[in-house]
Amino acid sequence: MNALELKDVRKQFGAAQIIRGANLAVAQGERLAVIGPNGAGKSTLFNLISGRFPASSGEIVLNGENITRLKPYQINRRGLARSFQISNLFVHLSVYENLRCAVLWSLGYKYSFWQRLGGLRDAHERVEIVLEQIGLQRQRAVLAGVLSYAEQRALEIGITIAGGANVILLDEPTAGMSRSESDAAVELIRKVTIGKTLLMVEHDMSVVFGLADRIAVLVYGEMIACDTPANIRNNAAVQAAYLGGADEEAA
Ligand SMILES: Nc1ncnc2c1ncn2[C@@H]1O[C@H](COP(=O)(O)OP(=O)(O)OP(=O)(O)O)[C@@H](O)[C@H]1O
C-alpha cells in the first residue's frame, strides 16, 4: 500500500486553475521532493494534502484511506504531520514544553483521568526520544524564542515528528540557512525520517538532490515529471522549464 496517493487532484481559486490534475503515488518510506518555480503551486499542493484547502476535484488517499474531504486535524490523526514555512513555535515556552504540547496533542489529551496518567508518562518518554533525535537535549529548558535560527528549525522538525506520524510534509526546511546549517539539517531530516515517508518542498537543489529518492517537478500547476534525481537531472523538459544550471550547482 502506498503512503500517499493523489488522483487527478485539481484546485482552482475563482477562475484561476492553480493545480491542474496532479497524480502521484508515494511509497511507504520514500522521500520525495517537490520542486518548481515560484508560484508553481507547491504550497497549494501541500495545503490540499494537509486539508487546509479543499480540493476542487480529485482524490487524496493517505495510508489507504480517502482523506479528500477531511479537516486538517482529522488528517493529522490519521498519520500525516506538516511543518510550515512560517514558524510554528511557542516562543515563550521551553524546548521541552513545545515538544510536550505536540506529543499531548497527538495523544488526544482529553480522555479519562486514568488514561491521562498513562498518557503523561508516555508523553514524557516520547519527548525524551524526540529531544535526542533532534539533538536539543542540552537546550531542553531554553525558551524556544531564544534558540538560534537553525535550532528553531530543528525544533520545528521535532514538533512535526513528535506525534509519530508516518507521513511528514516539510515546507522549505532549510530556507534561510547557511550552507553548513543546511548540511546539518539534511542529516537531521534523514535521521528523523528513517522508516517514514517524507514529502518536502525545497528550493535548495543540493538539499533536494541530497535527500530525495524521487523528485516531482511542478510547473504552473502541472506535474511535468516525477522521477529519480538522476533522471530528473537529465530530463530535457525539466531543464527547459526550470532546472537550468541549478543541477551543476548541486553537483
Ligand atoms: N488562497 C489563494 N487564493 C487565490 N490564489 C492563491 C491562493 N493561494 C495561492 N494562490 C495562487 O496560487 C499560485 C500558486 O501559489 P503557491 O504559493 O502554491 O506557489 P509555490 O509554488 O508554493 O510558490 P513559492 O515557491 O513562491 O512558495 C500563485 O499564483 C498564488 O497567487
| Helical amount | 40-55%
Indicate the low-confidence ranges by residue numbers. 246-251
User: Main sheet: which strands, in order across?
Assistant: 6-7-8-3-9-10
Helix run count: 10
Coarse shape: globular
- The structure class reads alpha/beta
Strand composition percent: 15-25%
Write the CATH fold name of the domain at 1-71 and 198-250: Rossmann fold
CATH C-level class of the domain at 1-71 and 198-250 is: Alpha Beta
How many E strands?
10
SSE pattern: EEEHEEHEHHHEHEHEEHHH
Quote the distance from N terminus to C terminus: 34 Å
Largest sheet: 6 strands, mixed
Q: Any idea what the radius of gyration is?
A: 18 Å
* Mean pLDDT over the full residue set: 90
CATH homology group of the domain at 1-71 and 198-250 = P-loop containing nucleotide triphosphate hydrolases
Describe this structure in words.
It is a single chain. The chain has helices spanning about 40-50, 70-75, 95-105, 115-135, 150-160, 180-190, 205-210, 230-235, 235-245, 245-250; strands at about 1-15, 15-25, 30-35, 55-60, 65, 80, 165-170, 195-200, 215-220, 220-225. With about 250 residues, the chain is an alpha/beta fold. Helix content is about 40%, strand content about 25%. It is built from ten helices and ten strands. It has a domain at about 1-70 and about 200-250: Rossmann fold, CATH 3.40.50.300. The site of adenosine-5'-triphosphate has 10 residues, from α1.
Topology readout:
Blueprint: E1 2-13, E2 16-27, E3 31-35, H1 42-49, E4 57-62, E5 65-66, H2 72-77, E6 80-82, H3 95-107, H4 113-134, H5 149-162, E7 167-171, H6 179-192, E8 197-201, H7 205-211, E9 214-219, E10 222-227, H8 229-233, H9 236-243, H10 246-250
Parallel strand pairs: 3-8, 3-9, 6-7, 7-8
Antiparallel strand pairs: 1-2, 1-4, 4-5, 9-10
Residues 13, 18, 36, 38-44 line the site of adenosine-5'-triphosphate.
Protein name: Amino acid/amide ABC transporter ATP-binding protein 1, HAAT family (TC 3.A.1.4.-)
Pfam families: ABC_tran, BCA_ABC_TP_C
GO molecular function, one term: ATP binding
